[in-house]
Amino acid sequence: MALVRGLVRQAPFVAKNFRLYFQNAWRRKILRTKVVAPYAVTFYVTHKCNLACSYCTQKEPDVFSQELPTHKTIRLLKKIRRETDSIVITGGEPTLRADIEEIVATARFECKFRSLLLITNGTLLDRKPGVLQGVHGLVVSLDALSTDPTNPLSKPAALPKVLANLEMATEVLGSPRRITISTVIEEWNIGEVERLLDWCGEKGFVFAAQSAQMEKMPNLALLRNPKYHALVDKIIQRRRSGTQPINGTPKTIETLLRFRDFECYPTMFPRVYPNGDVFYPCEPLHTVAGNLLEDGSLKKIFAKGQEKYGEIPPCQGVCYLFGNVLSHYYVNDFWGLAGDFIK
Predict the structure, then answer these.
(1) Helices and strands, number each (H, E), in the chain
(2) Cα-Cα-Cα-Cα dihedral of 238, 239, 245, 246, to 10°?
(3) Which residue(s) pair with 88 in the sheet?
(4) What is the mean pLDDT of residues 14-35?
(5) How confident is the model at residue 10, as a pLDDT?
(6) Cα separation, 232 vs 207, whole angstroms
(7) What is this structure's pTM?
(8) Is 80:42 a contact under the CB 8 Å cutoff?
(9) How does pLDDT run across 250-263, given as a tens digit for each residue?
(10) CB 274 within 8 A of CB 7
(11) Distances (CA, A) of 67 to 29, 82, 133, 298
(12) Which residue in 213, 180, 18, 189 sits closest to 88, CA to CA?
């Protein structure tokens, strides 16, 4: 009954999820394919960034694409909206685009996306404050709470500016729960991430974490570090007890941070590059199957991708990114996932 009451409280979320659940069950059980319907699209509006984080793959991606002018970018948004009501706008650093405020406003108020998240390093929000009027939520990447000015292109060097912009964003958005602090765990910053976890609890921000990828692979050396395991235990315990808002569920966090086996369904969270290129089956394989402006829909692009590249290969879940892990539980343990999220 608790699950049913939770489902009723979150009716719009539930309607979408049930529709996709049955649609994807048909694809998996009857059509015998891993090409599932998109839940949300990740749209890279630019590859440019004003920082140079060591683990970033987007500033100089293996597959590069040029930004489109505003009117064509808006055409892309409208095509994306036909197949999903959820979009994540990312980069690079999205606020480096001169037209990012117009892009966000169009996505929210003209295209009427029901979920619009913007991922940013937070350093330039004061220059593009209009984006805060259009987003449903903000994801700000932060890897430490200690300022380190020695590398001007690092996040620790930009920390004072990011903290000031977080205060501004919290005031505009009206609640810290609409802001997620996303951190990437490396061996050097385990202690800093623990500080960030506590700080997010104090401020009311949602905390999210994943480990740094090394050439798309996890750093397995972390599993030999007892401090890392203690940090993961602390994150999971706080999520399980509900003492502070943390992204994910105990199961997804355990899988993500301890590199457990999972089966990826990349078309659930397709990636669209600035020029409209769409990857099939996924960006790490560098295989572009089509372009939204030319082909018209993700469905057509995925069909082309299947014909050209075949079925989605069993990759044994090597890319430990939150969306990839979430796709596994969404398809393979939908009811358990729903129960964990609603609790």
Answers:
(1) 12, 11
(2) 110
(3) 42, 117
(4) 70
(5) 40
(6) 13
(7) 0.90
(8) no
(9) 999 999 999 999 99
(10) no
(11) 39, 22, 23, 19
(12) 180
